[in-house]
Write a structure and sequence with these properties.
The structure is a homodimer of 166-residue chains.
Chain A: H1 6-17, H2 28-35, H3 39-51, E1 55-58, E2 64-67, H4 76-84, H5 113-130, H6 134-140, H7 145-155, H8 162-165
Antiparallel strand pairs in A: 1-2
Helix pairs in contact in A: 1-4, 2-3
Chain lengths: 166, 166
């Protein structure tokens, strides 16, 4: 039972984007450089966050990604399920209905208690991740984090006065 | 994030073994026939439950598998982790320490908040499955289940008086 390696990437990228000034964006290339990740694959993964409504993507020379909603409205669960899908790890194939021990249909009207308990575990896992927003994550970072993130993530390509100096 | 298909097999096999009379066993072949499962692969998987201390295996002509402990002492978590291992689905590769945005070591003394929250979700998942024992599962079955299971799982190959009739 493994989540894709890119789960960590996207949790961190979303956290970084949550620290940008409103209206600013970061490109997939900038995020890839910031975390030393493979840019083409990261770009594809970022699109899955766009599809999930977590990020919006803008095009053009200054285009890139930004949060589609307030950090308090984006949960870790939304990010994780954008990457991995929302299906439960346990699959009940109803083996109770097959083989020599197959239960008659009238005894299978209720869901199998094993499937019910496995689903309950998945529900509490989802609930735990749904209870943590990007705002909660930001609140745990040192106060200096947002300025540092902005400077290192988008600063070099767009420092103040860059156009005037060139 | 998927559990192996055999997770369902072993949860059901352990539940069936929990319904046998004390001292009796069922073979991998009997369990495979009972649930219409591939016997050689099931046998291998049952060994993982033996390794985990959930089942004991006895050899010889009447040999087979039985619970190694009381049903109340065996949890769904033990069975699931016997099949799939106990490692957490989220892997933190510390990407916060790499790339242009790499955090200095002194800012990484504490675990990454994202890794902490992902670990917490895994902890509640484990807790949910650890809270359900095979005794709880048995308590949810209809009262007629144990007699039916015994008869169909081990009855046909060893009915009372079988040897005398042949």
């Amino acid at each position: 039972m493994k989540l894709p390696v890119s789960t960590e990437w996207l949790l961190h990228c979303a956290t970084s984007l949550a620290q940008l000034e409103p209206g600013t964006t970061a490109s997939a290339a900038q995020l890839a450089e910031y975390y030393d990740l493979p840019a083409p694959y990261l770009a594809k993964q970022l699109q899955s966050l766009v599809k999930a409504g977590v990020l919006s993507a803008t095009t053009g020379p200054r285009g890139g990604f930004r949060l589609a909603r307030e950090p308090a409205e984006i949960t870790l669960l939304q990010i994780v399920e954008a990457v991995d899908g929302a299906s439960a790890p346990y699959e009940c194939r109803e083996i109770r209905r097959q083989g020599r021990g197959a239960l008659p249909a009238e005894e299978c009207r209720q869901a199998c208690i094993l499937a019910v308990k496995m689903a309950e575990a998945h529900r509490v896992w989802r609930g735990s991740l749904a209870a943590v927003s990007l705002a909660d994550v930001l609140a745990d970072l040192p106060p200096s984090a947002p300025a540092r993130t902005r400077s290192l993530l988008t600063g070099q390509t767009r420092p103040p006065g860059e156009d005037a100096l060139r």
